[in-house]
Amino acid sequence: MKKLALALAVAIIAGIGAWFVWRPAPAAPQVVFTTLQGKQVSMQDLKGKVVLVKFWATSCVTCVKQMPDTIAAYDRYAPQGYEAIGVAMQYDPPNYVLNFVQTRKLPFPVALDTKGELARAFGDVRLTPTAFLIDKQGRIIKRYLGEYDVAEFHATVEKALAAG
Predict the structure, then answer these.
(1) Domain Thioredoxin spans what residues (predicted)?
(2) Using an 8 Å Cβ cutoff, are 63 and 51 in contact?
(3) What percent of the chain has pLDDT over 90?
(4) Is the pTM of this model over 0.70?
């Protein structure tokens, strides 16, 4: 009886472990971003690309610090099918966002989340920076909150770009 209970416990633990390792990645929400230029970009439009959706604010010290790395990743991987979309938080004044984008010459689209709908769609994002890496099939493969390992990020992007 003890052996049966032990075997059952091991099987349950193994099953739970396997679920965490092999569970399907969640689908990115089907939202539409409106860029500062008024262009609309939907998640459906981005299928087939590896996409970074980055929630940030001009008042966020870590966001500003990370922006050169975000630009560098965009410049490096965009020719291979990578896209980045910056999403300015609801509380960020639009004129501050526009000034930041222009003075830093951000090469990727930036959307304003004036009603907080995009943040809610991505799991009620409240902290910045929060970023989601989405694969070519539209699945969230990684969530980044705050500081992150740049080399690990690049490795994850490269793996996603190489995947079919």
Answers:
(1) 22-162
(2) no
(3) 84
(4) yes
